[in-house]
Prior knowledge:
45% of the residues lie in helices and 16% in strands.
Amino acid sequence: MEYGINFFPTVQLSQNSGEQYYDEALRLSVAADELGFSHVRTVEHYFQPYGGMMPSPIVFLTMVAARTKHIRLVTGAVLPIFHHPIQLAGELAMLDSISHGRLSVGFARAFLPEEFDAFERSLDESRERYEKGLEAVIRLWTEDNVSHQDRFYKFGPISMMPRPVQQPYPPVYVAAVGTPASFEWAGKQGHNMMVVPYLAKFEDLAANLKLYRDTFWASHPEKTLRPVQMSVHLHIAETDAAAEQEAREHLDQYVKVFHSSATAWNERKSDNYKGYEELAKQLAAMTFERTVGENRALIGSPETVAKQVSCLAEWFGEIEPSLSTMYGNMPYEMSERSLRLFAQEVMPREVQ
């Protein structure tokens, strides 16, 4: 099993400046490269403590590319609804070129109402904008004289420069949460999958991943199915008690800022986001004890964390955990110590 690292900032601006956060995240990325982790992944969100310290995965990952040699760079994810396809295709191809073909591109629909309002986009258009935007980006990477027209954009014929190093294009991942149709669509398109199991019912997520894999194999028997990238929080210490004590306030802060953003759904509803009006209620019920007890985060001693990884693999099949260690206001030294301990004590073990 391969493991990567994942940056999803949930830090308050009053706690940490952008300058400090990026310096520390880049230091941790270099350490991950040296320790043999498979990827560095980061998110696109805006202006709020929930993810807002990373408005551009492409800018951050370009700096990671300049400071590392082997580790793959994963957008986890970019949001086509907030970008013109020409801009997105060009900047991603540029990053693949700068990194000499180390890019994997994750795409997502976005889901925070306040971001849609700020960019003057409609929640009800999100799926169509997402699917049409992703289609246009892939065409721009692979075709000459592209002419494209949908309800939102019209351009061409144009031939894109630059082109990605990886042919026909970098590995594409799509983010899905709980809608079976999203998993089935990803399988039919032949894309790879990234998920976050933090709030999901494990039974439902396992069923959706089975649907995805069955659809992928039926639709694209010639393709290789990559492991599902799964974002999980990590903290390891010498004992379970020490790990839980150190992680508690920082995981609680993650839930707090997530809940604050999710409350926007209390007065919103969209057929594109069925069930999201329950999101704040779900987060209010997600205690630290429940998170640890239900294996929704990897927190404990090396022995405990190794068992938790095995449990996730048993539930969800072939996965590539994407480990978040700098959540909340976690001190850098604590994050790096946890990452190194994982590399030394957990990565060498065979998942049972």
